[in-house]
Amino acid sequence: MLLALIFTSCKSSSAAVSKSESKRENKYIVKNLIEKATDNIGVRYKAGGTTKSGFDCSGLVFTTFESENIKLPRSSYEQSKIGKIIRFDAAEKGDLIFFKTNKSKQINHVGLITEVNSNEIKFVHSSTSKGVIISSTKEPYYQNSFAQINRIID
């Protein structure tokens, strides 16, 4: 009985340590993801693109997460099914933000959140007209087409 108590105590304390370690590790991963994605600012848009010669929106997210050995689906619609949906006011850096652009009935655009303020989210994405850029949810185009936010790294 005493032996079981000792093992239980060890187990619970190690879980607490690993939880704080994993929180620290996740902050590091998020920082790396944002750096990797923003390093591509200025790269042109290319449908189906996943390299510095051109990215589409989901290709940028796919390649960025792959750099941290996190496998995501290739399309923005399929990416929107991964992780946990988060309220707009609970968004954090590293979350994915999804849109239904051009009056689409389903999600067809994705970005990686780089900054969160009280009522504005900034995100890096690949736009068909400007390539990889940082945009804001305050811009009417994205305000009107916002769909959801997903947390992949918890």
The Cα radius of gyration reads 18 Å
Terminal CA distance? 36 Å
Largest sheet: 6 strands, antiparallel
- Give the overall average pLDDT: 90
N-to-C series of helices and strands = HEEHHEEEEEHE
Per DSSP, what share of the residues sits in E-state strands of 2 or more residues?
A: 15-25%
**Low-confidence parts, pLDDT < 50 over ≥5 residues?**
1-17
What this model shows, in words?
The protein is an alpha+beta fold. Helix content is 37%, strand content 25%. The protein contains four helices and eight strands, in the order αββααβββββαβ. The strands form two sheets. The protein has a six-stranded antiparallel sheet with strand order 3-8-4-5-6-7. A two-stranded antiparallel ribbon has the order 1-2. A hairpin with a 4-residue loop joins strand 5 and strand 6. The longest helix is centred in the N-terminal third of the chain and has 37 residues. It starts with a helix and ends with a strand.
A few lines on this structure:
By secondary structure, this protein is an alpha+beta fold.
